[in-house]
Amino acid sequence: MGSIVSGAEAAALVRALPGVDAVGLEARAAGLATRSVKKASKAQAIDLAISMIDLTTLEGADTPGKVRSLAAKAVRPDGDAPSTAAVCVYPAMVAVAAEALEGSGVKVASVATGFPAGQVPLDLRLADTEAAVRAGADEIDMVISRGAFLAGDLERVFHEIKAVKAAAGEARLKVILETGELVTYDDVRRASWLAMHAGADFIKTSTGKVGVNATLPVTLLMMQAVRDFRALTGRQVGVKPAGGIRTTKDAIKYLVCVNETLGDDWLSNEWFRFGASSLLNDLLMQRQKLTTGHYSGPDYVTVD
Amino acid sequence: MSERLRVKKTYKLYVGGKFPRSESGRSYPVTSPDGAELANAALASRKDARDAVAAARKAQRPWAGQTAYLRGQILYRAAEMLEGRAGQFAEELADATGAEPHAALGTVEQAIDRLVHYAGWTDKYASVLGGANPVAGPYFNHTKPEPLGVVAVLAPQDDPFLGLVEALAPAIAAGNTVVVLSSEAKPLPALSFGEVLATSDLPGGVVNLLSGNVAEVAPHLAAHADVNGIDLGGVEDAALAAELEAAAAGTLKVVRRPGKVGDSLALLRQWTEYKTVWHPAGMAAAAGGGY
Question: Where do transmembrane segments lie in this chain (chain B) (predicted)?
Answer without folding.
Answer: none
